[in-house]
Amino acid sequence: MGASALILAAGEGTRMRSRLPKVAHEILGVPLVRYVVEAARGGGCDPVVVVTGHGAEVVEPLLEDVTTVRQERQLGTGHAVQCAEAAFAGADGSLVVLSGDSPLITADTVRALVAARESSGAAAAVLTAVLEDPAGYGRIVRDESGGLSRIVEEKDASDEERAIREVNTGFYCFDARVLFEHVHKLDNANAQGEFYLTDVLELLRREDLPVVAMAAADPLETLGINTRVQLAEAAKVMQRRINRAHMLAGVTMTDPDLVWIGPRVTLARDVTLEPMTFLLGETTVSEGCAIGPDTRIVDSVVGPDAVVDSSIVTGSCVCEGARIGPRAYLRPGTVVRPGAKVGTSVEIKNSIVGERSKVPHLSYIGDAEIGVGVNVGAGTITCNYDGRSKHRTVIEDGAFIGSDTMLVAPVRIGAGAVTGAGSAITRDVPADALAVERSEQRVIDGWAKRRREQSDDE
Q1: N or C terminus of the chain: which is more exposed, having fewer CB within 10 Å?
Q2: What stretch of H or E contains 259?
């Protein structure tokens, strides 16, 4: 008897003041609702179903690996559960109900909530939190034995009940069969005209079906995102949670508050991360690397003992012992082979830089293949675009490209060949040859002096 999960993600989130649906806002490059999906899966829930509504055309593409159900009219949390009933046809175990705007919930807490319901044999388990300031939340009133007596909304609470700091978080685990037997009994006789899932708990208590409460070990897990302020607060919590886990696993951060790491990033031990480093997406960094300061790496692989200094790396592979930066930009499709160097103010796109090759200064390399032991002089560019199509440049092993060379693709520079500084190379260069393409220097004696004298006369 396994658990399943229902994630409520249909709301607009008007307090975010955004065209983007609330659950599609991101923390560390990941949409809020994806954190909740992964927590549910990590907590052993299968299937995971998400109810979408407002902005569904934006939210649903973020959820292609889970089942989604449309709530065409947003008539409350109870109505959202009604809309999802068909997706759980035949379900006969625990059903966890989570909020898509609460990204800090963890798999451990989901698992514990399921265990709390199942071990007690209750019809439902409510996740609670003990807050320093419970204002605005429904209070948890417990009986003499410590069990859940009732949930009192703040507007209905007595002074004594308002002093209670344990609150309802809106996270539940139900017996799925019991939930769907009762959710259609809800009415919307309230000021909002909506069907509230919390009213199911009252129906269960009226029938003497047991409902238990479990306090979250960390109240921050239950933080919901309703404003940009709360989004930033949650991001800081997530940042510290992720950074702490990596540091305990052997990663050095000289200032953890100035390092941002996405949840899908993999870091090996003895990696050093300097301030203002961002590691996002599906990024992997191997042992002994030094990253930063002021560096952003997205969806890339960095091999052992590589250095990436003050640079941007996206969709690229930096191999063992390579050196990148400062202020380099590696665009998607770039591979920097072992021991190679990409230096100051160099941009590389969809290219291979061969083992022990160097592109040290002020260059653009696009759609190129650079062999082993090549030196590319400062200011060199590959002219890879003719206005219609991209063309490739090939520089074979051991070639030397003089400073300020323009390589007009398609073109091949043979092994061991040399290009003269300031050349525009438009044809292939044979191996071990010298290619020079520039006009002969002309010197006009006295020209500068005559110009100054003419200027003085005027």
Answers
A1: C
A2: strand 259-261
Q: What share of the chain is helix, strand, coil (3-state, %, to 5)?
A: 25, 30, 45
Within a domain: residue 82? yes
- Tell me the angle at which helices 198-206 and 77-84 cross, rounded to the nearest 10 degrees: 80
List the one residue out of 198, 182, 201 whose CA is nearest residue 190. 198
Interval 363-377: pLDDT, tens: 999 999 999 999 999
Question: What does pLDDT average to over the chain?
Answer: 94
The reply to whether 109 and 188 lie within a common domain is yes
Residue environment code for 79-103, b if the CB has 16+ CB neighbours within 10 A, otherwise e: bbbbbbbebbeebeebbbbbbbbbb
At 314 the three-state DSSP class reads strand
Distance CA 245, CA 231 (A): 21
Sequence-distant (6+) residues with CB within 8 A of 228 are 16, 17
Q: Within this chain, do residues 57 and 131 fall inside the same structural domain, yes or no? A: yes
Predicted confidence (pLDDT) per residue in 338-394, tens digit: 999 999 999 999 999 999 999 999 999 999 999 999 999 999 999 999 999 999 999
CB 27 within 8 A of CB 231: yes
CATH at 141: 3.90.550.10
Residue bearing tokens 């046809």? 89
129: pLDDT strictly greater than 80: yes
Do the Cβ atoms of 246 and 270 come closer than 8 Å?
Answer: no
Any idea which residues carry the catalytic annotation? 361
